[in-house]
Design brief:
203 residues; alpha/beta; Rossmann fold; Arc Repressor Mutant, subunit A; 52% helix
């Protein structure tokens, strides 16, 4: 998988500065090379549990500039929520490995996360939507506001949300404003979009 990713990324015009096999080596290489993007599997040696995820979380906690894309075999919502926990200014992504084969979409995700966007796999978002929610701030949202928030969780910008849902940019902005208000996210907080997605993922 690692060799295949290197070949794919280089074929897309990217330079791969390191390809490593465990979480400690990943953190060390990222700190040495300061790449535009770190891509890791959730599971890495020695135990093949969540070492890659832990490395990504550790890296983001120590360096707010570190953009990280985590690949997973399964749509584990807890992993996505934990990855988003240490919010920084750089991008973060959580993607199922199956998506890598969809080269054009994968290339788009790589570019977006490296540019600072937050991208969550659509299957993870669908799992979150299917959950039963009780005594939850998200219960305050209208069905349309939930749709807008789901699109935000997938990392889409306001114009992209407007196109997907077939509504105007102004309507999207109004819905997002309502979401922030209903989730009690203060206007002075510069990370309200990320905080809204976090509330969504953790609900």
């Amino acid at each position: 998988m690692r060799a295949g990713l290197v070949s794919l990324l280089e074929g897309l015009g990217h330079s791969v500065v390191a390809a490593v096999g465990d979480g400690d080596a990943l953190v060390a290489a990222a700190r040495e090379h300061r790449p535009d993007l770190v891509i890791t599997d959730v599971r890495m040696p020695p135990d093949f549990k969540d070492e890659g995820l832990r490395a990504a979380v550790r890296l983001r906690a120590s360096d707010s500039r570190a953009a990280v894309l985590v690949l997973s075999q399964y749509a584990a919502t807890a992993y996505a929520a934990e990855l988003l926990g240490p919010t920084g200014q750089a991008g973060v992504g959580y993607l199922l490995k199956d998506r890598v084969g969809e080269v054009a979409d994968f290339a788009d995700v790589v570019a977006r996360v490296a540019a600072g966007d937050t991208v969550i796999d659509p299957d993870v978002v669908r799992q979150l939507l299917s959950r039963q929610r009780t005594a939850n701030p998200l219960d305050r949202l209208t069905p349309r506001e939930r749709e807008v928030l789901a699109q935000m969780a997938e990392g889409r910008s306001n114009p992209q949300v407007a196109r997907v849902l077939g509504i105007s940019d102004a309507a999207v902005a109004k819905h997002i404003g309502n979401i922030f208000m209903k989730l009690d996210l203060p206007a002075e907080d510069g990370h309200r979009r990320v905080l809204a997605v976090l509330k969504y993922l953790r609900s």
